[in-house]
């Protein structure tokens, strides 16, 4: 009878520390492996670098297109840009032009 009482007291006394140790272990694991843990921080930094590179490329493309559109405005039409677009749209060329054919499916526009 005494042995059973000792086991019950020991088990009851060990329950509280076991619960707290389990909580600490859970939060430590989350700090390492969770969505906002230290292991995913490097992945997030890499994603941020990729997004910044994509943003830089998109801004460069936007500036290029804004420059080309500004050249086509009705107030001042750039004759070279107009000529380039007309030739591309009509699929025509000058006799002095150098023609470089592109493979099928790789169009410029």
Task: Write structural notes for this entry.
The chain has 109 residues and is mainly α. Helix content is 72%, strand content 0%. It has a domain at 50-94. The mean pLDDT is 84.
Oligomer: single chain
DSSP, total strands:
0
The shape, in one word, is: rod-shaped
What kind of sheet is the major sheet? none
| Proportion of beta-strand residues | under 5%
Number of helices: 3
Helix share of residues? over 70%
Q: Output mean pLDDT.
A: 84
Q: Give the uncertain stretches in residue-range form.
A: none
- Topology as H/E string? HHH
Task: Detail the topology: elements first, then pairings.
Elements: H1 2-33, H2 38-71, H3 79-90
């Amino acid at each position: 009878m005494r042995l059973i009482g000792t086991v019950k007291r020991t088990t009851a006394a060990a329950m509280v520390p076991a619960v707290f140790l389990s909580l600490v272990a859970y939060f430590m694991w989350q700090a390492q492996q969770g969505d906002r843990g230290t292991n995913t921080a490097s992945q997030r930094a890499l994603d941020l670098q990729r997004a910044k590179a994509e943003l830089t490329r998109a801004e460069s493309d936007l500036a290029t297109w804004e420059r080309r559109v500004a050249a086509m405005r009705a107030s001042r039409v750039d004759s070279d840009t107009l000529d380039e677009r007309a030739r591309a749209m009509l699929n025509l060329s000058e006799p002095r032009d150098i023609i470089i054919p592109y493979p099928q499916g790789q169009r410029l526009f």
